[in-house]
Amino acid sequence: MAANLRWIVIVALALAPLSGMGNYPLHLLILCLLWGFAYTGWAIMGRLGLVSLGHGAFFGIGAYVVVMAWNHWGLSPWMGLPLALAVAALIAFLIGYPCFRFKIVGHYFALVTLALSEVTRLIIVALRDQTGGSLGVTPTTALQQADYSLWAMQFPSKLVWFYVVFACWLAGLWIWTRVDRSMARLALQAISQEEDAAASVGMSVTRLKLGITMISALVTCAAGVLYAQYQQYVNPETVSGIGISLQMVFGAIAGGMFVRLGPTVGAAFTLLLAEVLRLALGHDIHGLDTTLYGLMLVLFIIFLPKGILGAAEEALEKRAAPTTRAAAPS
């Protein structure tokens, strides 16, 4: 039943833009899927006991590497994408390998990744001559002679962008499914419970942790590339730093990081929350959204640890259980 419901949701999303919705609802739907893709990347490792508070670094790397390669060297985003993925993989390796090799786990690993996120933001700000610093930067437009540019990955039509982001979101769900059905997931779950015992039976703890960390980093980096090309503007505060990392953690946990569509539900929740705050309060209170994310993250962990979708699925299973028992022959 749950599988059928997931397919209904996917088909409904694919057909939604064809219903004639306006540009603003379509824009929100695109952002929901884009952030759902990013949150899924975080949840791939977060649900296996590797809590990272620094995924804003990988998101920012994806956004800035592609924009800088286009603006300064004329490299198409299609060429900048593998470059950004290579940089993200290298950073994930350089951070992950020493941590896993020397058993830096739990809160200490979270603090290391938190520092990574802030260091990345500070580097972007410091390289203001190349990156625009705290003011951000806009990719050089290629739409002066054409309505769209496949080479520059610039499409004015939100309908085109929807299906580009939708395809990447589906790819994120496919990666989640492959990881979920692999033996590595079972091994990592065992490692998260008792690392020494898992190592004693022959599990390659460092290799497994490093592999899932790099997969998660690559998915998040790809989401950063999409965000930069769709928004056509990047800023260190909006694509990197602690705020974005905390948003990813909160979104994935709020939606349900143990459920395939949970991070996407969390993305919709955080997006709607941000829009309500923007319409109600504007930008008068700086940092209000980050404060609320932190407060609500604590509340969700205490009162709704399985997230919105996880709790909903559990409630449906409990309702269906008495019916199943009643239908069973005595």
Task: Walk me through what this model shows.
The chain is globular. The mean pLDDT is 88. Helix 2 (23-46) packs antiparallel against helix 10 (205-231) and helix 2 packs across helix 12. It contains 15 helices and no strands. It has a domain at 25-239. The chain has 330 residues and is mostly helical.
Helix/strand structural class: mainly alpha
Order of helices and strands: HHHHHHHHHHHHHHH
Show unreliable segments: none
Q: Give the percentage of residues in beta strands.
A: under 5%
| Average predicted local confidence, pLDDT | 88
Helix content: over 70%
Q: Characteristics of this structure?
A:
single chain; 330 residues; mainly alpha; globular
Summarize this entry quickly.
This protein is an all-alpha fold. It is built from 15 helices and no strands.
Reconstruct the topology from this structure.
Layout: H1 2-15, H2 23-46, H3 55-73, H4 77-101, H5 106-126, H6 128-131, H7 158-180, H8 183-193, H9 195-200, H10 205-231, H11 236-239, H12 241-255, H13 262-281, H14 288-303, H15 307-327
Helix pairs in contact: 2-7, 2-10, 2-12, 2-13, 3-4, 3-5, 3-10, 3-12, 4-10, 7-10, 12-13, 12-14, 12-15
